[in-house]
Specification:
Helix 4 crosses helix 11. 27% of the residues are buried. This protein has a domain of 124 residues: AhpD-like (Up-down Bundle), CATH 1.20.1290.10. By secondary structure, it is mostly helical.
Length: 255
C-alpha cells in the first residue's frame, strides 16, 4: 500500500500543476492514490503543455460546472475562486455565466430541425421553408449576422417558426457580446466547452462554435486544449461519490 509520503507527493504535485487544493480530493487520495495519480496525470496535460491563459482555463471549468446540464456547485465555487485569484474581475466571471446560461436554447435548435423533418415526411415543409422572410425577419437576421458574424440553419429555423422567440433569444444571448469585455475568441471557446461537455455533447453547436473560434483567431491547439480541460468532467463521479460512500459506510458500521 502506498505510504503517506507518496500521497503527500501526489498532493504537492497537484498543487504545483493546478495551483490549488480542495478537501474534495482528500478521501479519493486517501483511499485510492493510484486512481488519483492517474487523474493527476490526465488533468495536468493542458496545464503543462497548453497555451491558453490560466484564467481562461478556469473560465472553461466555471462554464462546464455551472452549465444547466451539470450544475456542480462545489466545482463552480472552486473555479470562481481560482479565477479571482488569477485576476478575473466580477464582470468577466459574470460574462462567462451569461455565455453558459444560453445552453437551454438547444431545446429549440435540436427540436425545430426534427419538426422540419417530420413536416417534410408529411409533405408540409412548404408551410415554413417555402415562405419568404418578412421584412421584420430579414432585419432580425441582418442584426444577428452583424453582431455574430455568421448565419446557420439552426437560427434560421428559429427565426421562421417563432420570430418573437428569436428576437427575445437574440436579446438575451447578445448581452455579453454587446456589454462584455472577453475577446470573441474566448467567448467561442466557452461555447465549445459547454457544447462538448459529456453532460451535453451537442455536435451541431460544437461545429459552429469551433468554426467561429477559428475565424476569431483561435488555433486548433487551443481548441484541443479546451477539449482536454472538459474531458476530465467525469471525475466528479469520484468527487461526489466517494464522500457519500464513506458517510454511508460510517452509518452502517455504527448500527
Amino acid at each position: 500500500m502506498p505510504d503517506l509520503d507518496f500521497r503527500q507527493q501526489l498532493k504537492d504535485e497537484f498543487i504545483a500543476n493546478r495551483g490549488y487544493w480542495t478537501p474534495l480530493w482528500d478521501s479519493v487520495l486517501e483511499i485510492s492514490p493510484e486512481y488519483f495519480e492517474a487523474y493527476l496525470k490526465l488533468s495536468s496535460v493542458p496545464w503543462k503543455t497548453g497555451t491558453l491563459e490560466p484564467k481562461v482555463r478556469e473560465f472553461v471549468y466555471i462554464a462546464i460546472d455551472a452549465a444547466t446540464t451539470h450544475l456542480h456547485e462545489p466545482g463552480t465555487r472552486i473555479h470562481i475562486r481560482n479565477a479571482i485569484g488569477l485576476g478575473a474581475t466580477q464582470g468577466e466571471i459574470m460574462e462567462v455565466l451569461q455565455l453558459a446560461s444560453v445552453l437551454g436554447v438547444h431545446t429549440m435548435t435540436m427540436g425545430l430541425p426534427a419538426l422540419i423533418d417530420v413536416m417534410r415526411k408529411l409533405g408540409r415543409s412548404a408551410e415554413i421553408e417555402g415562405q419568404p422572410l418578412t421584412a421584420r425577419q430579414e432585419s432580425m437576421k441582418a442584426d444577428w449576422i452583424a453582431a455574430r458574424g455568421f448565419w446557420a440553419e439552426l437560427p434560421e429555423y428559429m427565426l421562421r417558426f417563432s420570430p418573437d422567440f428569436f428576437e427575445a433569444y437574440v436579446e438575451l444571448s447578445s448581452v455579453p457580446w454587446k456589454h462584455g469585455t472577453l475577446p470573441p475568441k474566448v467567448r467561442e471557446l466557452i461555447y465549445v466547452a459547454i457544447d462538448t461537455s459529456t453532460t451535453h455533447l451537442h455536435e451541431q453547436g460544437t461545429r459552429i462554435h469551433m468554426e467561429n473560434a477559428l475565424r476569431h483567431g483561435a488555433t486548433p491547439a487551443e481548441i484541443v486544449e479546451v477539449l482536454e480541460l472538459v474531458s476530465v468532467l467525469g471525475v466528479h463521479t469520484m468527487a461526489l461519490g466517494v464522500p457519500i460512500m464513506l458517510e454511508e459506510l460510517g452509518k452502517a458500521s455504527s448500527r
